[in-house]
Amino acid sequence: MSKAESTETTVEDGVIQSVSGPVVSARDLDARMNDVVYVGDEGLMGEVIEIEGNITTVQVYEETSGVGPGEPVENTGEPLSVDLGPGMLDAIYDGVQRPLDVLEGKMESPYLDRGVDAPGIDLEKEWEFEPTVEVGDEVGRGDVVGVVEETVTIDHKVMVPPDALEEGETTEVTAIEAGSFDVTETVAELANGTDVSMHQEWPVREARPTVEKRTPRQPLVSGQRILDGLFPIAKGGTAAIPGPFGSGKTVTQHQLAKYADADIIVYVGCGERGNEMTEVIEDFPELEDPANGNPLMARTSLIANTSNMPVAARESCIYTGITIAEYYRDMGYDVALMADSTSRWAEAMREISSRLEEMPGEEGYPAYLAARLAQFYERAGYFENVNGTEGSVSAIGAVSPPGGDFSEPVTQNTLRIVKTFWALDADLAERRHFPSINWNESYSLYKDQLDPWFEEHVEEDWAEKRQWAVDILDEETELQEIVQLVGKDALPDDQQLTLEVARYLREAYLQQNAFHPVDTFCPPEKTYLMLTTIETFHDEAFDALEAGVPVEDIVDTEAAPRINRIGVQEDYEEYIEDLKSAIADELRSLY
Amino acid sequence: MKEYQTITEISGPLVYAEVDEAIGYDEIVEIETAQGETLRGQVLESSEGVVAIQVFEGTSGIDQNASVRFLGETMKMPVTEDLLGRVLDGSGRPIDGGPEIVPEERQDIVGAAINPYSREYPEEFIETGVSAIDGMNTLVRGQKLPIFSSSGQPHSELAMQIARQASVPEEEGDDEEDEEGSEFAVIFGAMGITQEEANEFMEDFERTGALERSVVFMNLADDPAVERTVTPRMVLTTAEYLAFEKDYHVLVILTDMTNYCEALREIGAAREEVPGRRGYPGYMYTDLAQLYERAGRIEGREGSVTQIPILTMPGDDDTHPIPDLTGYITEGQIYVDPDLNSQGLQPPVNVLPSLSRLMDDGIGEGLTRADHADLKDQMFAAYAEGEDLRDLVNIVGREALSDLDNKYLDFADRFEAEFIDQGFDTNRDIEETLDLGWELVSMLPKDALNRIDEEFIEEYYHEDDSEQQVVESAD
C-alpha cells in the first residue's frame, strides 16, 4: 500500500508469535501474499511473504530489536506500492520509497529511526498544471492529459491511469483546467467517472502494462570509449558489470549515471556503501547534464538502501527503482536504471529465504533466484507504451561475485539474461588501468543492431574500425603469451610493431580517466577519431618498416606518444589533425 | 522483573527457556547459576512461550536449575568522556582497577544506520606519515580502511604506527597545543587476540603517552568467543558518542575481525542455521556492514569516525569470505605482504592490490599537492611494469631486456627499498613522500611518464637524475 493514503482502514489485526531478525511470524492475521502490514507497537513496515495455516510470515523493513510476541500486527490489505507523480526526480529514497531528506527532518536525527513513515512524493506541493487535451476529447488508458514542469530538464506528463479503462476503450474528457494543484487534487474528469490526479500508485512487484516490446536500435551513448567503441548497450538494453571489489564497478556505474544520454536516470544503491551514496548526493546537483547544462539531479532519482540498512528493504529497493523507471518510460522517455549491486539484492533474498528455512539451491541462494533475476531484467526494454508513445528502460546491474569468481550463481544467472557483459578485471585495476573492463572477456550482443546508428551518426566505417582494433588486441593477447616466455626482443620486427600499436590502443584508447574534467566524457566522434589516429600510426609505421627502417627507430619517435594525450584535449579535432600529419611526417622522414 | 527456572535446552553457547510473557528480540538476559555466578546473554529468537538466548560468557556451569532474568531492554553501552584513558573488558566493564565509570548516557549498542542524506562526504586527508599509505593509498577522515594481513605478519606494528603518527597537516601549524590530546582519540577494540599481542599494544600506548586519549576494549583469546560479537559494537558506540557528540576525531582500530567472524559462525552453527560459504552465516555481509558502516562523518557535526579494522586472511587468501565480504563494504584495503615482510621491508605493504577508494577526493591542490594524483598513477604503473618484468628476468636475464625495461626494474627495486621500506619509527610528511616519489620516477625518461601532466613534469622532474641514469646505462 502506499503511504500517501495514511488513513487506510485496517482489515484484521493479528498477534506476533515469534521474532527472528527481520522475519516475524504472526497468528490470526487475515492477509494475502505480499500485503503490507504494520508490525508491533511501533508500527514497523513489513510485507507478507508466507502464509501457512493460521501463521503468516512477514519480512520487516526496519530493525526489530525489542519487538516481542504478543504485540499487534495490522494489515493494510494492499500490496507494496510506490507513489508515482511529480517530485520523484531530484529526490533520494530508501528501499521502500521513503524520502531520506524528509525522514531526516521528521526524525530530527542523522540516524534512521524506526516506525517513521513518509509519502514518496510531497502531497502538499503545488504544481503548475498545463492541459494538453480539451473538454470533449477522447482519451484512452495511459493517455497524456497535461504536463507539469517537474524540473528544469523534465516535463512530467500527467497520464490517465492504465487501470482506469480497458484496453482499446476510450472515454470523453468532461472537465479539465489549467492551474496550480497539489498531487492529490483532480485535474481532469472523465466521462466514465475517473478522476485523474497527478498521483498514481502502482504495486512494485508488477510490471506496468505496455503494448509491445520492440527491438532496440539506438545506442545508449555513454561517453566511455571502451563501452561506446567496443561493447555498446542499446536504449532498452540490459547489461551486467561483474567484478571483484576494487575493480571499479561503482565508478563505472557513476560514469554511466553522469554521462549516458538517457532522459531519466534511476540510480539504485542496493546494499552498498553509505559514503558512495553521499558522494552522489553531493556531486550530482553540482554536475552538469552534458545534454543541456542543467544540474544532473534534475533528471535523476536516487534510491539508497545502504548495506547497514534493513535487509528486507534491500530486497524491495530494486523493484521500487524499476517501477519508477517504468512510469517515466510510459511518458515516452528513455530511462536508464543502474542497480549497484544486484549481488546484494540476491543476498537479501538468500538471507530472508534461510530465515524461512526454505530448501536452499546453489550456494545457499533460494531456488527462485534465476527466476527473480530474469523477471527484473525482463522489465527493461524498448517498448511501445499503452498511450502509443515509445519509451525505453535500460537496466545495468553491477554484480559482486565472491572472490571475483564469475562461476558463482548470481553472475551465471545474470549472464543468461543480459545481452551486454562488461567484465571487470582485478589485474587491470591493480595496474590502475581504468576502466578496468577486460576486452577479451566482455561482449555486446547489440553490436550488429546498433552499427547502422553509429554509421549514420558518426562515420560510415565505424564497424570496420572497431573490428580492426579488436583484431589488433586479439593478436596482442596471443603475442603476450610468447613475450612472457622469451621476451619482447625475441619477436620478429612486425610483431614488435603490432605490440606497440596495441599498447597505444590500451593506454590511450581503452583507458579513460574518470577524474579528468575533459577525459571523463568522450563523445563518439572523438572515440572514432582517436581510433583513426592510432590506425594512422599503424599504417605509417608498417610502411616505414617495409621500407627498411629498424623497429627501434619507429618506436622511438616523438610524435606518436602524443596519442596518449588525445583524451585530455578539449579541441581534439585540431589536435588530432596535427598529430596525424606529424606522425606521418616523422615516420616518412626515416626512409 | 520475573525470574524463570525454566531452562529446557542448553546447546553450545545457546540456552532455551520457557517464558509466559512477551520477551523482546535482542533483549538482555541475566542467568544466575546454582554456584551464584551471574552470566549475561541476549535474546536471539523470541517466540511465544520459548526464547533462545545466546550467553556471552559461555554456557558452562549452567544447569536446568539456573534462574533466568529478562532485563526488559536491549544492550546498552554507558558512555562518557571519562572513558578516555580507561581499559575495559569485551563487554565494557573496567578492568584497569580504576574508579567506577559514571555514565553520562547509556546508548544502544546496535546503533541505527546513518541516513545517507545526513552524511558528509569524507575528503579530509589524514597524514599517517607512512609513504605507502599517504602517497599511494591515502586515508581520509571518516573512511574505513582495513589492513588485510595473515598470521605472523607485522600488521599490529603498522596499525600502531598509524595510530601514533596520524594527524591532519593544516592543524599542526597554528594551534598545536590546543589540538593535541583534545581533538584526537583512539579506540582500540581487541577481539580474541593473545595476551602478548595485547601487551604490545598496551606498552606502545603507555610508552607514547597515547593511553590518555584512548579507550581500550579487551576481549582476549581465552575470553568467551560469544562476547566478541558485542565488543566491536561497544567500541563503535563509544566512538560515535565521542565523535558526534563530543567532537573528537576518533580512530578506531579493531583487531582481529577474523576472530569476530569465527564467533558469528559458532553461534550460527549452534542455532543450526543454513550455512553460507565455508560455513559462515548467510547474513555475515549484513552483519559486517552494520559494523563498518558506522565509520563516517555527519553533516553539522565536528567529529569523525575513521576505522582501521585488521583481519588475518586464513591461508593468505583474499577470496576467503571474511576478507572478501570486508573488501566489498570497506573503502579500500591495505595489503600486508608476507614476501615483502621476509625481505625485511618495514612496513611490508604491497601497494599494488591495496586501494583507497576515497583517495581521489582527498588529495590534490589544497589538500595534499596538485601533482599527487598523476604521480601516484605513474608510480603504480611503473611499479606494476617492473614487477611483471621481474618474472621475465628470471627466464631471459637482464641483458636480454631493453634499456627502458631495465629502468623499470631499477625503479621497482628502489621503490621498495626507499619508498616503502621506511621503518616503523619514521614519520614522513606528505611533501617528503611526494618528493621521494619524483626522485624515483625521474629514473624513467620523460616521455615514459604518460600519466603525468606536462606541467608537473616541467615543475618536478629531476633532469640531472635522468641524465645521470642515461650515462650510467650507456657505460
TrEMBL record, chain A:
Keywords: ATP synthesis, ATP-binding, Cell membrane, Hydrogen ion transport, Ion transport, Membrane, Nucleotide-binding, Translocase, Transport. InterPro entries: ATP-synt_VA_C (IPR055190), ATP-synth_a_Xtn (IPR031686), ATP_synth_asu-like_sf (IPR023366), ATPase_a/bsu_AS (IPR020003), ATPase_F1/V1/A1_a/bsu_N (IPR004100), ATPase_F1/V1/A1_a/bsu_N_sf (IPR036121), ATPase_F1/V1/A1_a/bsu_nucl-bd (IPR000194), ATPase_F1/V1_b/a_C (IPR024034). Residues 223-444 form the ATPase F1/V1/A1 complex alpha/beta subunit nucleotide-binding domain. ATP binds at G243, P244, F245, G246, S247, G248, K249, T250. One of its GO terms (biological process) is proton motive force-driven plasma membrane ATP synthesis. Its EC number is 7.1.2.2. Its main location: membrane. It is found in: Cell membrane; Endomembrane system. Belongs to the ATPase alpha/beta chains family. Component of the A-type ATP synthase that produces ATP from ADP in the presence of a proton gradient across the membrane. The A chain is the catalytic subunit. This is A-type ATP synthase subunit A. It comes from Halorubrum alkaliphilum.
Automatic annotation (TrEMBL), chain B:
It comes from Halorubrum alkaliphilum. This is A-type ATP synthase subunit B. It is a peripheral membrane protein. It comes from the Archaea. Has multiple subunits with at least A(3), B(3), C, D, E, F, H, I and proteolipid K(x). It is found in: Cell membrane. One of its GO terms (molecular function) is ATP binding. Residues 7-72 form the ATPase F1/V1/A1 complex alpha/beta subunit N-terminal domain.
